[in-house]
Write a structure and sequence with these properties.
It contains two helices and seven strands; from the N terminus they run βαβαβββββ. The longest helix has 15 residues, at 41-55. The protein has helices spanning 11-20, 41-55; strands at residues 6-9, 29-36, 59-64, 70-76, 82-84, 91-94, 100-103. It has 108 residues and is an alpha+beta fold. The strands form two sheets. A five-stranded mixed β-sheet has the order 1-2-3-4-5. Strands 6-7 form a two-stranded antiparallel ribbon. It has a single domain, classed as tt1808, chain A (Alpha-Beta Complex), CATH 3.90.1570. 21% of the residues are buried.
């Protein structure tokens, strides 16, 4: 069982857990985010990268505060797991899995 640093789930999944109890499942997760640290870099960028893809989590972001800050956005790309975009510094903007804009310089 993994517990990402941040997850974004559907409202229906959130309400189900709030009302009925239990845990969120990988199928409930729209986006998983990990904050890389010196001690977690390999686990987050290799092990969890593969595990989250295998679990079917559509989007995975890795935020690197040590080397940037930067954000690497990954999305499922078929049987080969995630396709990774290049690391973004400054401002990260995307329309998928939802419209978002993050000022990464404010994280440093």
């Amino acid at each position: 069982m993994r517990a990402p640093d941040l997850v974004v789930v559907t409202r229906a999944s959130f309400d189900r857990v709030r009302i009925e109890g239990g845990l969120l499942c990988a199928a409930d997760v729209v986006l998983a985010v990990e904050i890389l640290s010196a001690g977690s870099r390999r686990t987050d960028s290799v092990v969890k990268h593969g595990e989250y893809a295998d679990a079917g989590i559509g989007h995975y972001w890795m935020v690197d505060l040590l080397g940037g800050p930067s954000l690497t956005a990954c999305h499922l790309a078929g049987e080969f797991g995630y396709a990774d975009a290049g690391p973004v510094t400054g401002t990260f903007a995307s329309e998928v899995p939802f419209p978002v804009r993050v000022d990464l310089t404010a994280l440093g």
